Amino acid sequence: MLEIAFQVPWLYGTIGLFVLVAGLLFVGMKFIGRWISDQQLARVHPPNARKLSNEDFEALCCRTGLSRSEISRLYMSFMKITDGNSHEEAEKIIQEVPYFQGPLQDRMLSALKLPEQIDFVILASALSVFSERAALDDKMRFLFRLYSSDVTGTVSKQDLTNLMDDVLPEFPDDDERNRLIDRAVQGTFEESPSSIQFQYVPILEPPMNDLN
């Protein structure tokens, strides 16, 4: 029987059946995952809040580069914080949404350029900078605003010193920790003595004459 299954006509049929079953399993798991996500969202969804439709999810995924599951988790957090309201203070969102937790949490509000009051679309759009599909220039501009004390996009020695002081853990020896920070800052500014500024350098196509 095994020999018959591996003859050429049977082999094609076996491969086709395997591909069909694998495809059905993939589609089934996708719908099951979406159903579980929707059920989790329904449990925390306040009755007075607007529910996201499939079209909403697709539009947000396209706009932000975030996955459906990421948007669903973010929306659940937003609903819990706002109790179903469409708008909330950006500062409160920054303090309570798990995505922003960390030593640089206090800098996120200005680095993301959030207004005082935000809705879910504004929040999701701001978080698009963390998506893999976000443009490198957008990521770099965000990082320079995050590291700069005055949010100008220019990072000074003092900015970098303060940044490392915020993110580095405590050392048994404070002097050793300070020396490590000083060496890192001096190494970064070895060729730029005062500050580093983000500059956009477009990639231009070579002239047609150079291709000949």
TrEMBL record:
Listed PROSITE patterns: EF_HAND_2
Spans through the membrane: 12-33
Domain of life of the organism encoding this protein: Eukaryota
Record keywords: Membrane, Transmembrane, Transmembrane helix
InterPro entries: EF-hand-dom_pair, EF_hand_dom
A GO molecular-function annotation: calcium ion binding
EF-hand domain location: 135-170
Protein name according to UniProt: EF-hand domain-containing protein
Keyword Transmembrane helix: yes
UniProt KW Magnesium keyword: no
